[in-house]
Amino acid sequence: MSLLMLSDPATYEFLIPAALVVGSLLLGLAVVVFIVVAFFSALFARIDLGMKILWIVLIFIAPFIGALLWFIIGRPRAG
């Protein structure tokens, strides 16, 4: 990209929406990965079967909040 192109306002009219689209896609992908990791973490956790089912249902009903709560308060601590 030359300096002459950078001085053209039309360049920014294209770059800003493109950056927003790419950023939104990356953020969405990160959220999906976070939820999938929480699901498998809850699925393979060494906890009571009833609690495991409860956490998995919560992750399905409210994916982001359920996954966040799983990692904050639900996941058993190593030790």
From TrEMBL:
The record's subcellular locations are:
Cell membrane
Where the record annotates domain Cardiolipin synthase N-terminal, the positions are 33-75
Name the keywords, alphabetized: Cell membrane, Membrane, Transmembrane, Transmembrane helix
Q: Which GO terms describe its cellular component?
A: plasma membrane
Report TM segments.
14-41, 53-73
What topology in the membrane does the UniProt record assign? Multi-pass membrane protein
InterPro entries reported in the protein's UniProt record: CLS_N
Spell out the Pfam families in the cross-references: PLDc_N (PF13396)
Q: What is this protein called?
A: Cardiolipin synthase N-terminal domain-containing protein
The record lists the organism as Nocardiopsis kunsanensis
Q: What is the lineage of its organism?
A: Bacteria, Bacillati, Actinomycetota, Actinomycetes, Streptosporangiales
